Amino acid sequence: MNNNNKDQSLTQIETHGVEQIPDNERTAGPTDLFRMIFGGSNTFATAVLGSFPVLFGLSFQAGVLAIVLGVLLGSLILAPMGLFGPINGTNNAVSSGAHFGVHGRIVGSFLSLLTAIAFFSLSVWSSGDALIGGAKRLIGLPETDLTLGLAYGLFAILVLTVCIYGFRFLLWVNKIAVWSASLLFLLGVFAFAGPFDVNYAGTVSMGQPGFWAAFIGAALVAMSNPISFGAFLGDWSRYIPRDTPKGRIMAAVVISQVATFIPFLFGLATATIVAIKAPDYIAANNYVGGLLAVSPSWFFLPVCLIAVIGGMSTGTTSLYGTGLDMSSVFPRVLSRVKATLLIGVMSIAFIFIGRFAANLVQSVSTFAVLIITCTTPWMVIMIIGLVVRRGFYCPDDLQVFTRGEKGGRYWFTHGWNWRGLGAWIPSAAIGLCFVNLPGQFVGPLGEMAGGIDISLPVTLGLASLVYLALLSLFPETATVFGPNDSRSKGTHSLAKPALRQAA
Fold first, then answer.
1. DSSP state at residue 501
2. Fewer Cβ within 10 Å of end Cβ, the chain: N or C?
3. Nearest to 170 by CA among 10, 364, 392
4. 278: how many CB neighbours lie within 10 A of its CB?
5. Taking the domain 23-361, which CATH number applies?
6. Which residues, including other chains, have CB under 8 Å from residue 211's CB and lie 6 or more apart?
7. Where in the chain are the domains?
8. Inter-residue long-range contacts of 361-366, CB under 8 Å, 24+ positions, other chains counted
9. Buried/exposed 354-373: b ≥16 CB within 10 Å, e otherwise
10. In whole angstroms, what separates CA 268 from the centre of its chain?
11. pLDDT in the model for residue 357
């Protein structure tokens, strides 16, 4: 494809889809990856996640431990997902074809699509509500369907515009978002230092019934934030040179998640204040409204800026990946720009229907948790596959589906690798059965652990065991291993199956 991506201009519209990024155009580094990930997390939406321990009844100290545990565990699972982009020069959904088959990789594309729509919607809703709520208190702007609709619509269009211009512009937005949002969150230390009580006890203490259910539930909510990035890391890391040390890439991923303690702890600390000063908001699970109610007047403008900057960052990272994935699923119909426009319009329609035709905030939250439960086994299968293959991939053969061809190393059975699919399908299905979100969704087995949601540990463990068992019982062909791998020795030929044009 002829393109002008060598032009580093921010206003140069990116024309790359999911084809392999040429080595001479890979000018990003681990620091850029850090900014992209942290920029997408340094938002109001993450602060809302940080309020969940208080909503669950935990003390401040227990909430801190739950957040730290969840974020660290999630970041360790997420870190290896940053390696596929530099190795293969494409996004993670396309890379997953090495383990699910070149047709089976559409599982990853649709998982990332659904995840992006859910988190994009939540981001626009929370940012728009905060912006209008702040304007109402500052200048008396009425909070009506019209003002809310204008806020959602204009914000969504702004995000869509940034996504169309692509990676370079996206990276520039996140450079600003990382530092400005962090400073604004830290400014909140001065805004809320007076009323904050580090000894906030919550309503459920250790030893009381329901404590461990609340603690593990809060940890899983925190863990869901890094896990939600699993399908998207390749979108950004594909611009990193393939010879970049793997340790630096994974360190950038882990550090980006550790940095999210800023918005997480902001949400946790301010939620304790809301619980004391405006308990009705906590009872109604309305953290954003409560934050606006207890904020000092001088902190209103920073709150509005956090809403705008954070929403921009989360929205753009989600929608960019979505457009990229859809262009790869329908390569002959949709370019990246066309796919971004289409999914953007669909997301905007979804936002308006959810906000004004129904009350879908809780439903979307549940939807996001269910998607993450399905995404986690997909991630662990890819990570195990990366280790088993010892990092060897053939990037050209991963593009067979995109080019409309058949054959190659990853054709397996008509483009499907039933080893990866055979591990993912039962793991995701059983994981969903263990989901326990009281008042929203409780799976058939959700009460087996005394009300504790153990869906993520179950789906992680099951996917690992089943996939390793299938690889042991039904070894993959020698062509998927590198030429220096002992498993490929002694074979007559390492020649890949011939490529042929699809009918």
1. E
2. C
3. 10
4. 18
5. 1.10.4160.10
6. 58, 62, 204, 205
7. 23-361
8. 361/122, 361/125, 362/439, 362/440, 363/440, 364/118, 364/121, 364/122, 365/122, 365/440, 366/437, 366/440, 366/441
9. bbeeeebbeebbbbbbbbbb
10. 21
11. 61
Q: Which two tokens stand for residue 444?
A: 């058939």
Query: Bridge partners of 441?
Result: 437
State residue 152's pLDDT score: 81
Distance CA 479, CA 409 (A): 6
DSSP symbols for 437-461: ETTTEE-TTTTTTTT---HHHHHHH
Place of tokens 């519209």: 13
Number of H helices, E strands in the chain: 23, 4
String of DSSP letters for 9-69? -TTS-----SSPPPGGG----HHHHHHHHHHHHSSHHHHHHHTHHHHTT--HHHHHHHHHH
CA distance 169 to 334: 21
Which stretches of the chain score pLDDT less than 70? Answer: 1-18, 162-175, 177-178, 284-286, 310-318, 320-321, 324, 328, 331, 336, 354-365, 368, 438-439, 488-503
- φ and ψ at 441, to 5 degrees? -150, 125
pLDDT digit string (tens) for 247-279? 999 999 999 999 999 999 999 999 899 888 888
Distances in Å between the alpha carbon of 240 and those of 31, 80, 402, 481?
10, 14, 22, 24
At 435 the pLDDT is 87
Q: What is the phi-psi region of residue 412: left when phi exceeds 0, alpha when psi lies from -120 to 50, beta otherwise?
A: left
How many Å is the Cα radius of gyration of the chain?
23
Q: Which helix (H) or strand (E) holds 436?
A: strand 436-437
Tokens representing 29 are 């580094």
> How many other C-beta atoms can be found within 10 angstroms of the C-beta atom of residue 114?
18
Q: CA-CA distance, 371 to 49, in Å (whole number)?
A: 16
How much is the pLDDT for 388?
A: 93
pTM for the whole structure: 0.83
CA 234, CA 20: separation in Å to the nearest integer? 11
Listed residue (492, 466, 31, 403) closest to 253, CA to CA = 31
User: Distance between CA 86 and CA 89 in Å, rounded?
Assistant: 5
